[in-house]
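Lecture notes, part 5. Sequence design as translation. It can be helpful to think of inverse folding as translation between two languages: the language of shapes and the language of residues. The source text, in structure tokens, appears below.
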């Protein structure tokens, strides 16, 4: 199912030039991901500007969710169970339940009475429901009050929202378990109950497993992190009419990078061009038994649009590269060993990547130390080059500003240290990138690019990328974009996006298990072509009735 997403945009100006092409400025459009504090402030600003009671916003939010559901259900008699907490998220759910009941839907409403503190607007929503419909909510105070939930039901989860800051009581967690075990289609309002917006989960925490999350104004950062995102099957955003000026002018620390943002960065080509206008990529790497990594990265740089590509490898790799990739030039060190003993090339490159398949032999380490001392332009640093730096932290002082590091989780941990949860990982990574003035690409299900305390979350990719060599392909794609004159941040974001999109296209032919790294490279061109195709829209069907 494909869902439309609502976007709010802002301009962010970056400048960068290199020898390939002079570029003045860029203004990518970015989808903001607001913090819970910012969303509460947006509520406040909206109420003040419009001169309305806060309850009106609850009515507005609940009304939009009802319209969203009604558009998809069209009056079908599917059993709907609405679970409401006693805060504002529960109030939203009460508004939804009232509107569903008034329009003839088969609804049972339950108040999860977890403490004595009810929000004022929740109480207003409760009174409105009791005044307008005959079917009043049932009160749940413990396990003994749990209703039966079947797989044919739709569950509306409005128990806890973004204000959750402590672990729910055991019986409430037991309700979460019951909802999860029911296998019912579960629609969570704003955020799955039990999930926090700004911290990870503890060992005993339980979260509602959401079939779909309808998130107000923007998705939440937790949706994209491994330990929390796994509880969400799909999500969409819904515009509930918060103040557009506040949303447009308020900076955020997190942005979502998807098709509209990449379209803004993408540069087309005129008819009268030649290979020299699109940069020269140099891929440094390889060792005995690991020449495939350089081959993958080099071919990916070509597929990404680099006008020229040279691979710099130990001499043992020359026959392999010359045979496998006739389009790629090859340079070598002056030794006949199986690993690098020096890095001294003649290629005048616009972008350099180092690390794929390089190994961590002491001779290679010494060669890399010498290489870093001579570099001024941003590099793409991957794999064993990252491992070498992690073992010798002082080398970070030699890494040029705006270099792009692309670690997998293990390599990242060696760089920044152990973390408590994914939020802590992001904080440690952001501080490391800030301190060293570099860009870090945190590879994962939702790859996150980090620079200057900002997070840029990618939206493409699938589990088929969990196979050997796809990281080498990513290195090549990023390098190819950097060589063409894209700003390092653009090169990183576009590289990550197209890498994932190519996998999304390729998986339709090879399947998740059958996808290999070379397939991603082969579908890079198709991924770029799809950048300007219009997606098809599909409806959402109610669960089948038995």
């Amino acid at each position: 199912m494909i869902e439309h997403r609502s976007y709010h945009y802002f301009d962010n100006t970056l400048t960068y030039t290199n020898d390939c092409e002079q570029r003045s400025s860029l203004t990518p459009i970015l989808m903001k991901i607001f913090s819970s504090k910012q969303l509460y402030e947006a509520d406040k600003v909206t109420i003040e500007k419009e001169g309305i009671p806060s309850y009106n916003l609850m009515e507005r939010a609940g009304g939009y969710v009802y319209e969203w559901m009604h558009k998809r259900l069209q009056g079908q008699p599917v059993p709907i169970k609405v679970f409401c907490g006693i805060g504002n998220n529960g109030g939203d759910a009460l508004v939804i339940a009232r509107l569903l009941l008034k329009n003839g839907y088969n609804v049972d409403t339950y108040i999860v009475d977890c403490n004595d503190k009810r929000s004022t607007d929740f109480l207003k929503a409760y009174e409105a429901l009791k005044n307008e419909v005959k079917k009043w909510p049932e009160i749940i105070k413990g396990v003994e009050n749990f209703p039966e939930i079947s797989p044919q039901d739709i569950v509306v989860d409005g128990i806890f929202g973004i204000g959750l800051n402590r672990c729910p009581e055991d019986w409430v967690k037991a309700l979460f378990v019951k909802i999860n075990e029911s296998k019912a289609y579960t629609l969570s309002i704003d955020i799955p109950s039990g999930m926090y917006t700004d911290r990870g989960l503890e060992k005993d925490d339980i979260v509602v497993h959401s079939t779909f999350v309808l998130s107000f104004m923007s998705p939440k950062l937790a949706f994209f992190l491994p330990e929390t995102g796994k509880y969400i099957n799909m999500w969409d955003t819904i515009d509930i009419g918060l103040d557009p000026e506040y949303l447009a002018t308020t900076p955020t620390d997190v942005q979502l990078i998807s098709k509209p943002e990449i379209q803004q960065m993408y540069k087309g080509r005129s008819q009268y061009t030649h290979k020299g206008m699109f940069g020269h990529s140099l891929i440094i790497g390889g060792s005995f038994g690991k020449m495939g990594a350089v081959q993958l990265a080099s071919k990916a740089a070509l597929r990404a649009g680099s006008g020229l590509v040279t691979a710099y490898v130990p001499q043992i790799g020359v026959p392999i590269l010359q045979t496998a990739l006739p389009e790629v030039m090859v340079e070598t060190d002056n030794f006949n060993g199986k690993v690098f003993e020096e890095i001294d090339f003649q290629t005048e490159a616009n972008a350099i990547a180092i690390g794929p398949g390089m190994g961590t032999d002491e001779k290679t380490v010494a060669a890399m130390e010498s290489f870093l001392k001579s570099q001024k332009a941003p590099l793409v640093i991957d794999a064993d080059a990252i491992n070498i730096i992690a073992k010798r932290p002082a080398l970070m002082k030699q890494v040029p500003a705006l270099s792009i590091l692309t670690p997998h989780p293990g390599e990242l941990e060696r760089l920044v240290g152990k973390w408590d949860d994914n939020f802590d990982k992001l904080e440690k990574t952001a501080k490391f990138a800030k301190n060293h003035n570099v860009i870090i690409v945190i590879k994962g299900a939702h790859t996150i690019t980090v620079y200057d305390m900002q997070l840029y979350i990618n939206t493409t990719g699938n589990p088929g990328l969990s196979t050997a060599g796809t990281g080498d392909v990513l290195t090549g794609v990023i390098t190819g974009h950097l060589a063409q004159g894209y700003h390092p941040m653009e090169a990183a974001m576009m590289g990550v996006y197209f890498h994932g999109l190519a996998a999304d296209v390729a998986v339709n032919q090879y399947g998740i298990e059958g996808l290999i790294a070379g397939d991603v490279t082969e579908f890079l061109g198709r991924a770029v072509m799809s950048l300007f195709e219009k997606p098809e829209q599909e409806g959402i069907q109610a669960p089948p009735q038995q």
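The translated text above is only one of many valid answers, since several sequences can fold into similar shapes. The longest helix spans residues 488-514.
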